[in-house]
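Friendly challenge for the regulars: who can give me the C-alpha cells for this chain first? No prize, just bragging rights.
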Amino acid sequence: MSTTAPTIARQIPHAFPAILAGLTAGICDITAAFITAGLRGVRPLRLLQTVASGLLGAKSFEGGWETAALGAALHFLIALSAAGIFYAASRRWSVLTTRPVLSGVLYGIAVYLFMYWIVVPLSACRRGPFSITATIVAIVTHIVCVGLPISLIVRRYADHPSLTASKDAFV
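First reply, four minutes later:
Bragging rights claimed.
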C-alpha cells in the first residue's frame, strides 16, 4: 500500500510544521550564536544568561545554570513564535510557501530587524556598541539559520491547496 505526499501531509497535525520549523531554527540559531560568541571568548553559559538578561537584566549573570536554562527556554520560545507566525501567515499568503527561498531570506531579515530594533531595545538587556561586522553576521545568521529553515520546513509540511498539485507532480 503506497501513500502519496498529500495524504501524508494531511495526516500531520496542523501545528507540526511550525513546531518542527521552530525547533530547527532554534537549534541552528543557538549553534551559530555559540560559535560566533565563542570566537569572541564568550562561553555558552554566558551567552544564554545574556538572553535571559532581556527579562531579568544584570541579575541574570548571577544566576548560574538556572538563568542560562531560562535563556535557552526564552530562545526556543522566540524561535517557536517566529515559526508559528510564519506558518500562520503562510496559510493566508500562499506566496510564502510557493516561493520558500525568497520568503525565507526576507523573513530572516524581518526577524533580525524585529529582534534587534524592537525586542532588544524594549528589554532589560544592555545592548553593546554598534558594529557593522556583527550586524552583517547577525543578518546572514538570521537568513540561514532562522528564515530559510522555517520557510523550507513549512513549505515541506504545509498542506496548502496551492501546493497539493505541485506535490502530486513529484509522486
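The first helix runs from residue 5 to 11. Confidence is low (pLDDT under 50) at residues 160-171. Your move, everyone else.
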